[in-house]
Specification:
about 325 residues, mainly alpha, about 75% helix
């Protein structure tokens, strides 16, 4: 317990494994070890997904032993959570094949909503609409531990189905799914005890849906509310910009950009990417260059990959030199 409280899960794992060798019928030790193994795995996956995948064999042996020892008392979190954790790490770095393999291994044991949702996402991106719909149907049938979780996953399912309908050019069906997602997010926002950070993110999510429903001003009100609730957050700026810039909404994107750039707590490299986005948007929409974005790039330190991006954007580094720097 001292190791756990000190943030040293690997040391606690070593100690608990010794305890189990001496006293294997102590359920609390098995349960605590399972939790610590998951914490350690998640930390490893965030920095080295390959090493985390290699560790799965150790966890499989541990959970096999747990099932043999405690046939009627599941030791949680189990392997489906472990598979999903490493799968998400692979997905985040663009290695979708490895991610899908792990998600499928997990849902074969227990269909976790996170895994089903990401399987649907990958299938949809690859144009396998029927497969995506099948995963979403499985997700819709799951039971959830709380009303909060049910609202979240129902909203997510409706949003995914709206995207399927958009690709199929089924406008009426898309609107029905978007309104279904809107209803569930409104339900989450009505929960009094959700954290301020989550409330901010839910306003951003609702803003994206309202925007797709043609309610531009209501959408911007939600984006503004999200930024006000979590002024130092990243997602409340990044998500609206990633939504508005590809759609060519110059004035709205500049409003979000200016609020983000005013936050001293945001990472400079994040502000660099925001500046690159709005400069590209200005060129694409026929607006004059955004001087404050250009000034940010001009002043950006030249070291590292981000520095090379800034120098390329200001014209002091050719595309060929940029590619050479990435090699």
């Amino acid at each position: 317990r001292v190791f756990e409280q000190g943030g040293l899960p690997d040391a606690a794992i070593f100690h608990l494994r010794r305890v189990l060798k001496e006293k294997g019928d102590y359920f609390e030790a098995w349960a605590r070890l399972a939790g610590l193994e998951q914490i350690s795995l998640a930390r490893l996956a965030s920095v080295d997904p390959d090493a985390a995948r290699d560790r799965l064999a150790r966890l499989e042996r541990f959970h096999g032993d747990a099932m043999s020892t405690w046939k009627d008392r599941p030791v949680e979190p189990g392997m489906p959570v472990a598979y999903s954790t490493v799968g998400e790490a692979y997905y985040d770095i663009g290695r979708a094949d490895e991610a899908v393999d792990l998600f499928e291994r997990g849902v074969a044991v227990e269909p976790l909503p996170e895994a089903l949702d990401l399987l649907a996402t990958v299938a949809l991106k690859r144009g396998r609409v029927d497969d995506a719909r099948r995963q979403l149907e499985r997700l819709a049938k799951l039971t959830h531990p709380s009303e909060h979780a049910r609202l979240h996953w129902t909203a997510r399912t409706q949003t995914q189905l709206a995207e399927i309908a958009r690709q199929a050019k089924q406008a009426a069906k898309r609107e029905d799914h978007l309104r279904g997602a809107l209803h569930e997010i409104n339900g989450i926002l009505s929960i009094s005890d959700i954290s301020q950070g989550e409330r901010a993110i839910r306003h951003v999510e609702r803003g994206r849906i309202l925007f797709d429903l043609g309610e531009t001003e209501l959408a911007m009100e939600d984006f503004r509310q999200g930024m006000s609730l979590d002024e130092e957050g990243v997602q409340v700026y990044a998500d609206p910009l990633m939504f508005l810039v590809p759609r060519g909404h110059y004035d709205l994107a500049i409003e979000i950009y200016d609020r983000a750039m005013a936050r001293s707590s945001l990472d400079p490299s994040l502000k660099l990417y925001f500046s690159l986005w709005v400069l590209e948007l200005a060129r694409r929409t026929g607006h004059a260059p955004v001087n404050r974005a250009q000034s940010y790039l001009d002043a950006y330190p030249s070291r590292g990959w981000e520095g090379k991006l800034a120098r390329h954007a200001t014209g002091s580094l050719t595309f060929e030199q940029l590619l050479a720097g990435a090699a």
